[in-house]
Write a structure and sequence with these properties.
Blueprint lengths: L7 E6 L6 H10 L3 E5 L1 H9 L11 E4 L9 H4 L3 E9 L1 H8 L6 H11 L4 E5 L6 E5 L2 E5 L3 H10 L5 E4 L2 H19 L1
Parallel strand pairs: 1-2, 1-4, 2-3, 4-5, 5-8
Antiparallel strand pairs: 6-7
Helix pairs in contact: 4-5, 4-6
Amino acid sequence: MSSVRTPRWGWALTGSGHYFPECLALLRDLEDVDVFVSKAAAEVVRMYRKEFQLPASMRIFRDTTASAAPVGLFYEGVYHTLIVAPATSNTVAKCVYGISDNLATNVFAQAGKCRVPAIVFACDTAPELETMAPEGMVKVYPRRIDLENTARLKEFEATVVAETFAELTEAIGRRRAEIAANVS
């Protein structure tokens, strides 16, 4: 087992700007959290540079190794929960089909293999959405395949799929309560 005394939250950022500042605010409210930043997320972070300030206690892992070396921490019992938020349709599709070719999809796969519960905030969840981009509000029209993949991901064991930011907040709150109950 790892020398980490308190199991941590894992949070994977993908290349979506959908509720990105709001997700960062939720992330900042958690204690004992590690952040996994995919290459696409690193590009989005630059767009939202002002909002990306995290406490010094958070460990940040960037997608810089071919084998996504940080995923080994899941096998050491370091994480009690993985959050993937916001999750692009690309990330959701890769998760559904078992493709783990970047840091975000790899930590999702390893969380599942290690029976670590996951919460995924899928971005493409309705036929028509509005989302805030760095330059303002835009309309998005997810494709049928995007909606189907979100539905498929909901069938995964130990995975909660949030379709709205409110659902993400509620899912994190429920998981916090479960963790607190298990500690008592």
